[in-house]
Amino acid sequence: MIRAALAAATQRLAEISDTPRLDAELLMAHALGVARDDLLMRHIEASAPDGFEALVARRLAHEPVAYITGSRGFWSIDLAVGPGVLIPRPDSEALIEAAIAHFGAGAPAAVLDLGTGPGTLLLAALDHWPEARGLGVDRSAVALGYARDNAARLGMADRVAWRLGDWAGGIEERFDLILCNPPYIGTEEAIGEDVRRFEPASALFAGADGLDDYRRVIPQLRGLLAPGGCAVLEIGWTQAGAVSRLALDQGFSLRVRNDLGGRPRAVLLT
Ligand code: GLN
């Protein structure tokens, strides 16, 4: 029975995951081909599907749930993800909140996402501002493949353009909102085994102090911003001071916003 299979899997997954019950439910819903809510409300007494144990085994080998199920919710949208692309984190929703607080009742017309991955920040912003258009940049063709598919599935294909590129190099337009979640982990920093073994290092690591990409991106921002626009960068929770100094050096004013865990996660530059 599903109820019993979930309880047993939760116990095993507790060895490798901080969210074993959630993982078990997501894997079970995926094995059954139903939404998690439906699983709990309508299928809990059914017999467990054959494929479930194999999915649990993959998770026990540290593979992230989102790679196993092929999707992850972020803000108001679901994104297809898989090997080669950074899985959206709830922490990054702090960037969308910061942008919404900045524009208030207004809206950005043009949005740029530098290092868009599977389209995470850009597609969430376009979902929030239905009149906005956007450009997503990544240096990974694999990531842009996911981003393109996600835009099409969300019905946003005609509002976005994608560019294989190295940060803002070669971009001539101006944007009301720039979003950027660059790699920011120091090369020697310890990170979780799931992340280290499965997610792309190029999306995570940025030199000895994790600041290499801010040093490259922040000086490019002024020339990309339309009048009244803002740029919102994700930061590691210890980096607010260092990133603020890089931004102040470029003449920006800034505000820092916390994530749901109360840690500094987004800096908004104007
Ligand atoms: N927050 C991510 C993690 O710790 C890192 C994302 C990034 O480097 N941009 O896994």
What CATH architecture of the largest domain do you see? 3-Layer(aba) Sandwich
User: What's the gyration radius in Å?
Assistant: 20 Å
Main β-sheet description: 7 strands, mixed
Write down the CATH topology of the largest domain: Rossmann fold
Total count of domains: 2
| Biggest sheet: strand arrangement | 5-4-3-6-7-9-8
Write up this protein:
This protein has 270 residues and is α/β, with parallel strands linked by helices. It folds into two domains: 2-61, Helicase, Ruva Protein, domain 3 (Orthogonal Bundle); 72-269, Vaccinia Virus protein VP39 (Rossmann fold). It contains eleven helices and nine strands. α1 (2-13) crosses α2 (20-32). The mean pLDDT is 97. The structure holds glutamine.
Features of the shown structure:
270 residues; alpha/beta; Helicase, Ruva Protein, domain 3; Rossmann fold; 2 domains; seven-stranded mixed sheet; two-stranded antiparallel ribbon; 11 helices; binds glutamine
